[in-house]
Amino acid sequence: MKDEFIVNIIHRPELSPEYAEKSGGKKSKAVSEESLDIFLFQQEQAHKNGLKTTIHITYAALFNEDIVKIAKEHHEKYGDEIALSLLGLPCKEFKEKYKTEDFCIWMFSKEDKEKIVDDVFGMFYDKFGFYPQSTGSYFLDAYTINYIKRKYPSVVCAIATCWEEGSKAYHTCNNSWYTFMDGGPWNPWIPSKVNSHCPASDKEDDSGIVAIPHLSRDLLACFDGNGSNFGTHPQNVIRGMIYYHTENGWHYPYLYNLIDQYRHLGKYNDGYSYNMMFVGPGWLNKMGRWEAPYELLRQSYEDGMAYYGKLKKEGKLKDMTMSEFATYYRQKHTNYNTPESALWKDILYGTNKEYFWYVDPFMRTCLDFNQGGAMIDLRPYVAKVPFEVGIGTDHVYDATYPYLIQANYRAGYFTHYAGAGTVKSCKVTYKGETVDLCLTRTMAKFNKTSEGVELTTNPVELELGGEKILIQSVFTFLEGKGSLKITRRLLNKPAEPVYFNEYFTGAFGNNEYQSDMSKLTLRVDDEVMNYEYKGRKIVHEGAKVGEVIIPDVCTKVSVCGDNDSIEVEEGIAFSPVYHLAVKKAIKEGEFTTWLNLEKAD
After folding, report:
1. What CATH number matches the domain at 4-341, 3.40.630.40, 3.50.50.60, 2.40.30.170, 3.20.20.510?
2. How would you class 589 by CB atoms within 10 Å of its CB: exposed for 0-12, middle for 13-18, buried for 19 or more?
3. Of 184, 439, 449, 547, which residue is least crowded by CB atoms under 10 Å?
4. Is it the case that residue 58 has pLDDT exceeding 50?
5. 435-493 pLDDT, tens per residue?
6. Where in the sequence of the chain do the CATH 2.70.98.10 domains occur?
7. Quick check: 134 and 54 in contact, CB under 8 A?
8. pLDDT at 470
9. What φ, ψ does residue 455 adopt, rounded to 5°?
């Protein structure tokens, strides 16, 4: 089957961009005229390269007859889709009508969300004579999506989250960017009716739309650092200073490598791969941005769009509008359990660092093969944590989906205080010497089996007790089960038994600070322990299962396997985590364990 690389090009004629009104010192009319010129330039670049776009009309743009006319013309001439953006709200008309400086749709109260949606959709209908098929924002919560789909069933696609925002974006914006939405998919998904971060588990849970992310980002550099510097619209790359200049002009090979890395994901997703570019006029501000002149911003956009056009001419790319893509995606994903997978290499620094990202209705997780395949991020989608977002709720501005493991917010293996970091890994002991596989470096091979998605590492060699111990790891995501099977293969035959400690150090939350853990319960078989910060353990020989129940995130985590023993341990106040471990000693062969996620009521 031929690989298909699908691209959405989305342009937003934002006539009242906040960046310009608050930092540029220009009159509103001048800002509007400049923004219109930039939008026309963006459209021209797409069309000259044979690419169709989705035009995201904002609230402010609905008051501009020129924009309405241009959108109609481009729809007729180029096949562009006319869509409705729920960004671009903070224009003069909106502020006067709603008596507020707020502009993020997910942060409003339920009542105001409905009023604003009806207002904007109604104006759109008045201008174009139909309701849109696509909409979007930086984030769309489940309540807003459900309301839109109920009132305006024509909508089939929406931009619904911005991948890897959250605390990191907050810190890199001088602690002023209150748009926390970490924990969502990086690639398209069908949102759950309960929580829009989570892929729907079945038809009853299906919100009725296909969601796409706001920007396609570098799935390694973005996780490790500030995601705003690593995206497939050229001005992100400029902001990240990932370009250079010669006598022949400006160059940004990283941008092309990033687009190609997304093309490569077809290898892991049955031949399908996706990329999107979503750009408002603020990124091409004629005053320049990030110490970059307008000439550089303009050329990078021209060159980026030309690269997409080149791929299309070579038959390596299909450009679609958002609604066209929604139809395509549902044809490709007839099984709700079909995962999105990404074995992602370091394309910025050229190291051998490699992450594997996995999303299905049960979990979002990341394995780091620079740490032997350690799990460094885990979100329990199976729980579909049903929190609401906006004024009048317990989550006014924080839409982040909670984690169980998060190596950046709650550390990982490498911590100042041993054992304090959240991570899933394995310790290997031989003749009294121990090493954690987090300290090994390896790479992985991807395969699909009858069980699901499988990752097999290159063997790693450990020097223990004066001997070499050769170990290979296999990670299998069991499709439709919410389970990860981990097999540790002992590839040689040491003189004495090798002891494996397959452990899970977890927490929960949505930032660096741990909430109260005292609601947790830990269990091995029939012995139960309530979390009291005393560092106590339960150890059973030949046990069947060890588990923790975390009521705050509606999740049960359990571990099991062909073991000698299973152990659970509570943390202390200085180290508020919990530990699950499955242990076994073998002289040859392999050791297999399972990590299972379930919803806990």
Report:
1. 3.20.20.510
2. exposed
3. 449
4. yes
5. 999 999 999 999 999 999 999 999 999 999 999 999 999 999 999 999 999 999 999 99
6. 362-599
7. yes
8. 98
9. -120, 125
CB 361 within 8 A of CB 355: no
Q: Return contacts of 336-339, CB within 8 angstroms, 24+ apart.
A: 336/190, 336/199, 336/200, 336/201, 336/202, 336/203, 336/205, 336/206, 336/361, 337/201, 337/361, 337/479, 337/480, 338/479, 339/452, 339/453, 339/477, 339/479
The pTM assigned to this predicted structure is: 0.96
Q: Report d(CA 572, CA 579) in Å as an integer.
A: 11
- Is residue 457 within 8 Å of residue 472, measured between CB atoms? yes
pLDDT band at 290 (very low <50, low <70, confident <90, very high): low
Can you tell me the distance from the alpha carbon of 523 to that of 598, in angstroms, rounded to the nearest whole number?
A: 15
CA distances (Å), origin 433, targets 464, 466, 507: 6, 10, 28
CA distance 444 to 8: 30
Rounded distance between C-alpha atoms, residue 495 and residue 482, angstroms:
37
Supply the CATH classification number for the domain 362-599: 2.70.98.10
3-class SS of residue 471:
strand
In 10 A of CB 387, how many CB atoms? 19
Residue 23 scores a pLDDT above 50: no
Mean pLDDT computed over 322-328: 98
Task: Give CA–CA dist 181/106, Å, rounded.
Answer: 10
Q: In the predicted model, is pLDDT for residue 21 greater than 60? A: no
| Cα–Cα distance, 533 to 521 (Å, whole number) | 12
Token pair, residue 353, equals 């660092």
Number of H helices, E strands in the chain: 12, 31
Angle between helices 253-264 and 294-313 (to 10 degrees): 40
Q: Which of 539, 545, 520 has its CA nearest to residue 530?
A: 520
| Residue 577 structure tokens | 């985590």
Taking Cα atoms as reference points, which of 553, 565, 439, 575 lies closest to residue 505? 575
Compute the C-alpha angle 104/512/395, nearest 5°.
35
pLDDT (average), residues 154-167: 92
Give residue for tokens 């609230």.
59
CA distance 524 to 544: 8
> CATH 3.20.20.510 spans which residues of the chain?
4-341
Q: pLDDT per residue over 168-225, tens digit each?
A: 888 888 888 888 999 999 999 999 999 999 999 999 999 999 999 999 999 999 999 8
The tokens for 447 are: 């395969």
